[in-house]
Amino acid sequence: MVYLDPEGDQNFNRMLVDAGHAQVKDYTTNEFDPYDWWAGEETPEPTPTEAGKYVGSVKSDKYHYPDCQWAKKIKPENGVWFASSEEARAAGYVSCGVCKPP
Ligand SMILES: [Zn+2]
Q: Domain range spanning residue 26?
């Protein structure tokens, strides 16, 4: 964790996420909870990696559009991003019946 001031008001890690240069990934083996950074504010949606277009979860075999109601229930640490539906299918995922990605 990097703060730009001694009081800890300027969280550089959060600035990187807010500016779109980084995404939240919560490693649970430490005392930091990145979701605390937006305490009292709206927590950002999980963001796709470079070429991410569809998202699935390590806990299911469905892939979704990122704005699908089910995609939003996927925790960032469980998200698996695909650049194309072909890539998702090749990984053994099937199209979500709700958002119906190709
Ligand atoms: Zn879906």
A: 1-44
Kindly state whether residues 30 and 63 are assigned to the same domain: no
- In angstroms, what is the span from residue 64 Cα to ligand 1's centroid? 4
Is the pTM above the cut of 0.85?
A: no
User: How many domains, the chain?
Assistant: 2
Report CA(44)–ligand 1 centroid distance (Å). Answer: 19
Residues 6+ apart with CB under 8 A from 28: 77
- 74 and 53 within one domain: yes
Rounded to the nearest whole angstrom, what is the distance from the C-alpha of residue 89 to the centroid of ligand 1?
14
38 and 53 part of one domain = no
Distance 69 CA to ligand 1 centre (A): 6
Distance (Å, whole) CA 102 – CA 37: 36
Dist. CA 63 → ligand 1 center (Å): 7
Q: What is the pLDDT of residues 68-89, one digit of tens each?
A: 999 999 988 899 999 899 999 9
Amino acid symbol at 71: A
Q: Which residue has the tokens 């083996």?
A: 29
